[in-house]
Amino acid sequence: MRTPARLGRTRLTAISGLVAASLAATAGMATGSPTASTDDGRRQLVRTASDDTSTKVVMVEADTVEKRNEVIALGLDATEHADAHGIEVVLHDAEDAKALREAGFSWKVKVNDLEALTKKNARIDRAYAASVAESPLPSGRTGYRQYADYLADLDQLAATYPSLTKPLTLAHRTALGEEIRGIEVSVDADNVKDGKPVFLLMGAHHAREWPSAEHTMEFAFDLLQSYRSGDRRTRALLADSRVILVPVVNVDGFKVSRSAAPLGNFSLLDYEMKRKNCSLSGAPAAFQTGTCDNNPAGRLRGTDLNRNYPGFWGGGGASPTWSNDTYRGVSPGSEPETKAVRALISERSVTVMISNHTYSNLVLRPPAIAKTGRAIDEPQLKALGDAMASKNDYTSQASYQLYDTSGSTEDWSYWITGGLGYTFEIGDEGFHPAYEEAVVGEYLGIAPADGAGLGGNREAYYLAAEAAADPELHSQIRGTAPAKHTVSVSRTTVSPTSPVIMPGGVVGDPILYTDTVGAEYVSTGGKFVLDVNPSTRPLVAGRYGRLPQAPTQAAVTLTNPAGVPAEEASEFTTFEVEGLPEADNGFAVVSISWPSTDPNAYDWDFFVTGPDGEAVGSGATLANPEVIRIPDPQPGTYTIEANNYAGGDAAHDWSGTVTFEAPTPPSPSGIKEAYLLSCTDKRGDLVATREVVVDRGEAVDIGNACKRNKD
């Protein structure tokens, strides 16, 4: 990758006439012209629907995390759809393409006319709804719900299954004062202080990601219908655990997106493509007029809720700029919707959580930022992620392997509470593509979904719910307590965000934030089991590693094929990586150099693919040597493409070696945090307190939890 000509970009009209243009845009949004905005003197891009050419979606070639982070840093309209080869970006006009080109990137067009594709999918949806009286989904629906449909379905399920459901309203209202609704599903659902572990499934943190809410709602129908039909698996699950479903977290934004006139071009006025909530957070005064669905900043006003959670807030992969689609908010956890979800997770024993999104066919696990280091529970996180991905044919990987993302839901939830957390990126084409594929097919695992025949997201959610109930994956506190006494555990901690990236790239100090997490059990008298997450936060517990089971492999000298390819052409060579029992390699380090003192005149680029044909690393800078580190290389044959980028000839040909390093050993911190366990009687008077330390997979028997403290 060439050194970018610029790492950021601004493009808009002169500042003069800002207020007048803003008011004019508010009055007549249909044909708005490019407007300018200021934020502490910085110019920001505000796009409109008046682009001269069709809006395109392109896959930018970026085969490393660093390159994908660089694409995001350019300030373009990234869709967040990414894989090991690159990241998709919306090109609104020639200026967008110029910015990519000047930064040294190339791309392939995936969608030549985004508006045309949107209209096509709308026609497909109308045809499907007209031709099918009832879909095979648990609800039988044939098209995307409006928000009122979600409320009606939640009410219907509560009325139809009164003993198995409890309507849920989260503790905080949205920025516009709406309730955030959900439903709890369990045997004896009203008894929320029953000590059971919880699986939490959520949708629509991002307003335009309609399938994420559909899948969440369908799983509620599925559980209840399956239980009533006598399905033994579901009956066992709901007897031993509780499932909480919140189909729409971003209520305000979702209502705007679902009711908007479709444009399909991601422009300023394309409210259907609104991603963020309806907060005024961070917006300059000139852009705070109007309503969420009709204002000078269009769909770009608001905060990205999935960049606002305090865990590692303020780092890479989120924007400090109010008008950016990934704007992180004014402070960690500032948004009411974020506060609502944090309160829910903090007050319940959420042992497994999935936040549904679209799109990329991915099951993502912590960490979301590479510098965080691999989670100490990486084996468990990976095993469950892989198992779920086997049911929907998604790729299971750590979130940072795509690009850094700070302030995400599962990163806060896992590192602070210890509950295993995941993001599902549903489907592989657009934020709300054709319903038959994105909802019916992906949920049930039937054609036309890619994972047809594997079980779909329905089966993946069942695996997650069963994992939530598995005591090997969380912790238990056992004991006895008199009837009508309440046994509770709590832990209050102070944690740092990421070092905060300021506008302009200056990095400030982390910000400290406080969390109190816990759970309650009301005793019926006698023995009890209180399912909780480990008392020690993963944030402080340490990082994952493993001890080597064999020596590392001997170094390999790479074979340079005969001859030299023409400039900009390539040649290929291979090397072998050994596995157990012969060798245990934590890293393969490819180092390739060539005779040269002028990197602009003589330059080679190298690209490595693994035994499965997937890209595992690249060296495409001006460095000499190019060094490529491959973590945990799988045994098999690796292929290196050597590209003669500039000036390579017989006198400036390459040579290289592959050396191997041992696995990184585990690095537990040795720190143990404790829950404060307390017992109160039926009058609410405190009877007893003590500290309890419990690890993942451990059950601690405390005896009589309400044995009075000695004076």
UniProtKB/TrEMBL annotation:
It is an enzyme of class 3 (hydrolase). Its cofactor is Zn(2+). The keyword Ribonucleoprotein does not apply. Residues 1-27 form the signal peptide. GO terms for biological process: proteolysis. The keyword Signal applies. It comes from the Bacteria. One of its GO terms (cellular component) is extracellular space. GO terms for molecular function: metallocarboxypeptidase activity; zinc ion binding. The active site is at E425. Keywords: Carboxypeptidase, Hydrolase, Metalloprotease, Protease, Signal, Zinc. Residues 143-450 form the Peptidase M14 domain. SUPFAM superfamilies: Zn-dependent exopeptidases. Its EC number is 3.4.17.18. Belongs to the peptidase M14 family. This is Carboxypeptidase T.
